[in-house]
Design brief:
The protein has 17 helices and no strands. The chain is an all-alpha fold. It binds fe (ii) ion (2 copies).
Length: 300
Amino acid sequence: MALEEERYEKISKIIELVDRSEISSIQSVVSGVIDVINDPQSSAKDLKDIIEIDPPLTARVLKVANSAYYYSLRKISEIQHAVIWIGFDVVKEIALSQKVCEVFDQDETISGYSGSSLWKHSIAVALLGKMICRREFGERGENAYAAGLLHDIGIIVENQFLENDFIDILKKAEHEKKNLSVSEYEALGYTHTDIGKMLTDHWSFPEELVVAIGNHHNPDKAPQEFSKFASTLYIADYLCQERGIGYSDAPFCDPGIFRKCLKRLDVKGYALDLIVKDMEKEISMMEDQGLFQYDKAKKQ
Ligand SMILES: [Fe+2]
Ligand SMILES: [Fe+2]
């Protein structure tokens, strides 16, 4: 069997397991919100309908919407009020983050990795990617936010289905001072980026997201039409790891690729420094509000 085919077979088997697991339970809400983001005809009602089908999610979205982080001045008790009061875009973000965080539930720390540290990293990448799009390109950055939340979902899948092999890979990466994807490739013949790519493709996400998630450690391989988006995700991921925000799966990433991405996007380092500082402020406000205590929220 050709190497590529063998790799495809192995990952397909894992995706079949994902289909029968709790991870797949996030698919309909996450895909629904991503469709709302990417459909210019979509309305607040479409978003409300997606959220309200899931009562625990509705409760969590309302809880976050009422937190001081979102500065809501009056009690918000319905999703449609949340959309009016704090905005359509903000409610999309809350719904996505609250649904995606359900799968980050492993809290034992192994070689620097835990579900909560990867969650912190993912939300930081999401915020930073969105802020870069808004401030540097004048775009809404909603797909960048979604890509940030989900880019390392392959690690969650490995954690759940490879069990001891995953622990060995984590330990090996730490011991041999390698990026996680190098150890993954040596042990498995594929990496968490391959899983993320196949899973998000299987979930019919827009191609831009699938490509960026699949190339988040090698944006140069993204086709030209998705190069800007993939480079933005790379920059956000790189900077969060460099600043040590949450788990870092690539502590030895190549500054040459980072500089190439900056050049490609025509973004200046000093502009990014300011954006990173603002993102760090947001992250610490979220921590103060207890918004990283996803496990407690999940059980409500
Ligand atoms: Fe990664
Ligand atoms: Fe990452």
